[in-house]
Amino acid sequence: MFTEINAKLVAIQGELRKKEKYEGQLADYEREIETIEEKLNLLQYQFYTEQEDVERLERFGLTKLIATLSGKKEEKLSKEKQEMIAAQHKLEEAIKTKKEIDQAMRVLENNLKNLGPVEVEYQQLLLQKEDMIKVSSSPFAAKVFELSEQEGVLKAYLMELEEAKQAGFRVEDALSDAVSLLDKAEGWGTWDLFGGGTIAGMIKHQKIDEAEAHLHRAQRCMREFQKELLDVQDTVFVDINISGMLKFADFFFDGFIADYMVQGKIKRSLEQARGHLAKVRDILTRLDSQIEEKKVELAEIQKEKQGIVERL
User: Fold this and answer.
1) Taking CA atoms, which of 2, 108, 117, 241 is between 20 and 30 Å from 229?
2) For the chain, how many helices (H) and strands (E)?
3) Which contacts of 76-85 are long-range, i.e. CB under 8 A and separated by 24 or more positions?
4) Phi, psi of 251 (to 5 degrees)
5) What's the CA gap between 138 and 127, in Å, rounded?
6) What pTM value is reported for the model?
């Protein structure tokens, strides 16, 4: 009977930790969705403004006539179209991000629903435990239950550390891919600037497009990583205020105006991606260290509990 209720206590501790974790992540997403909605409103306004500028230049009128006669119409229209495309691109990225956050929140809400009334179940187990301690003739019964609770807390915490570690691996993978592609884009861009021809330009932009996809993936994974770190930040000693790491790719999504700007943007994005990759790897190292430390604690508790149970 002791073994059965101990196993239930360990399991329910894990469920309680999950509930706290999901609620914390959901609250953080709710704060984040407010920010992204404000950003969406601003980006929609910017896009519509740029679109109106293009339409105004394309309509026949005095402004267009003067610009045509001065030979500057096509140049100005081209610039306005580039700005409109850049604004549209940023808007599309923000819409994609909001959809991802909405989906993540639905998953958490569903997880919480599936957990059910875990607090009630925990209280019921506590009452059973108290009754068993009262009727037990062993002076060690209370200690066994105490160790079982500690075991449950540690197992749940280890699971959180492992989940954070896996989320970190996904960020590392996405950033590594982005760094590799940006590095290639920079090389082809340099050749393009020095007369590499059409092929060099095409390959450069192909690498930019591929890198952009990985940067967006890195942002999504970074957001998930940050949520996983919420519950372990105090013991892992990491700064989870990684909003800068979440936003760094926004610079890349601004769009490209001219070849020399493209090259500068590639270089800066590459430097940022490498810097954030180093930060993620540092956090992963700390997570590994904490996992090993908690495994040692767990083994000691399990050994002590087993020794007592064998004597009961």
Assistant:
1) 117
2) 9, 0
3) 79/257, 80/50, 80/53, 80/54, 81/54, 82/255, 82/257, 83/50, 83/53, 83/255, 84/47, 84/50, 84/51, 84/53, 84/54, 85/255
4) -60, -40
5) 18
6) 0.63
Amino acid at 311: R
Give residue-wise pLDDT tens across range 112-147.
Answer: 988 888 888 888 877 777 677 666 666 677 787 788
Rounded CA separation 277/285 (Å): 12
Name residue 145's amino acid: F
Q: What H or E segment, with its residue span, contains residue 289?
A: helix 259-311
195: three-class secondary structure by DSSP: coil
Euclidean distance between CA atoms 11 and 14, whole angstroms: 5
Q: Which residue has the tokens 């908690």?
A: 294
Quick: pLDDT tens for 191-207.
Answer: 454 455 555 556 666 77
